[in-house]
Amino acid sequence: MNFRNKKVLIMGLGVLGGGVASTKWFLKRGAKVTVTDMRDKKALASSIRALGSAAKRIRFVLGEHREEDFGTNDIIVVNPAVPRESKYLAIARKHGRMIVNDARLFFDEVKSPVVAVTGTRGKTTTVNWLQFILNSAGKRALLGGNSSDVALLSLAENLKSKTTAVVELSSWQLEFLPEAKHAPDIAIITNLYPDHLNRYGGMSDYARAKAGIFSGQKKGQALILNAENKWTRFFLGQKPRSRTYFFSTRSLPKGRRGVFIKNGALFFKSKEGTEEVISREAMDVLKERGEHNLANFAATALAAHLAGVPWFKIARAIPKLPDVKYREEIVLRNKNLTVVNDSAATSPDATLAAIRRFLKQGQVVLITGGTDKNLDFKPLAREIKKTLQPERVMFLNGSATKKLIQELKKLHYFKNLGINLSEDLGGAIDCTTKVMRRKGGVNWVVLFSPGAASFEKFKNEFDRGEKFNLYSRQAFENRT
Question: Beta 186-189 vs 114-118: how paired, if at all?
Answer without folding.
Answer: parallel
